[in-house]
């Protein structure tokens, strides 16, 4: 008999629950135990332990309610902070993009200027280029000599005084060692 009772009870609870789910209703209200504070004390007002227990439960419910309100307030604060952080992150990414674009533009401008300078030295007569390069700082002059066409560089070094040519050649070698 007990074996037939369990499937019958299962059907008794499962069928209505399945129908409610099928209709899209919330089951939590059906199975929740709900009692109003006044209902708790009906017929127990003369039992001091029951009154004390009801007051304790009411106090706990109020504390839980306040705690839940504070949690909701903190959730709202966190959501606001997250929103602010996302906005700031978007701003920083945009600033980074514009800075990168400006740096790329500046780097390109410098490269263009260097290419013009090198083209200028490539077009100069070796004696004129040598006279100018000997008056420049040795590292800058060596950089220019490293970038001009090899034939033009060789003619310019040949036109420079031997001591200065040795210094420039040493600078060029040192640059090559530093920047492999």
Can you describe what's shown?
Helix content is 84%, strand content 0%. It has helices at 2-23, 28-31, 37-40, 48-123, 126-133, 138-147, 150-159, 162-178. The relative contact order is 0.04. By secondary structure, the chain is mainly alpha-helical. The protein is rod-shaped and about 120 Å long.
Order of SSEs: HHHHHHHH
Distance between the termini: 92 Å
Most strands sheet: none
Strand % is under 5%
Q: What is the CA-based Rg, rounded?
A: 44 Å
The coarse overall form would be: rod-shaped
Helix content: over 70%
**Regions with little confidence, pLDDT below 50 for 5+ residues:** none
Summarize the structure.
The protein has 180 residues and is mostly helical. Helix content is 84%, strand content 0%.
């Amino acid at each position: 008999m007990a074996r037939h009772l369990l499937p019958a009870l299962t059907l008794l609870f499962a069928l209505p629950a399945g129908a409610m789910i099928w209709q899209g209703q919330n089951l939590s209200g059906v199975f929740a135990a709900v009692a109003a504070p006044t209902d708790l004390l009906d017929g127990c007002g003369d039992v001091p332990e029951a009154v004390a227990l009801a007051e304790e439960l009411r106090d706990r419910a109020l504390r839980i309610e306040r705690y839940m309100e504070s949690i909701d307030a903190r959730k709202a604060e966190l959501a606001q902070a997250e929103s602010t952080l996302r906005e700031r992150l978007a701003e920083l990414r945009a600033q980074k993009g514009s800075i990168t674009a400006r740096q790329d533009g500046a780097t390109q401008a410098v490269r263009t200027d260097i290419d013009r300078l090198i083209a200028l030295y490539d077009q100069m007569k070796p004696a004129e280029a040598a006279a100018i390069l000997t008056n420049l700082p040795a590292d800058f002059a060596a950089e220019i000599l490293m970038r001009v066409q090899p034939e033009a560089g060789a003619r310019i070094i040949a036109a420079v005084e031997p001591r200065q040519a040795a210094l420039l050649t040493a600078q060029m070698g040192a640059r090559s060692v530093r920047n492999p």
